[in-house]
Here is the input.
Amino acid sequence: MAVTLSEKAAKHVANYLAKRGKGVGLKLGVRTSGCSGMAYKLEFVDQIDTDDVAFESHGIKVFIDAKSLPYLDGTELDYAREGLNEGFKFNNPNVKDQCGCGESFNV
Here is the structure.
């Protein structure tokens, strides 16, 4: 099982953590939400939860809670700029369907 960051995403996270002045990495997860059933959670980690599974990608530590890991296994987190919009993009091979707005998905 693994979750990775693209080089662009890793650089963005590293820059943000440096500006923030604290943090040990990034935590990814899923929660029940939206019209398709699940939505992604993303937050910066200041203190490591010993129950989380840890990965490292391009020098950035990525933490995932055990319940979310089966839904995120194989996911690459990218950072994309499309026109005036920019943000993180989850390239998740487990997604079977997602809502039209792209905010939620199911597996």
The two ends are 16 Å apart (CA to CA).
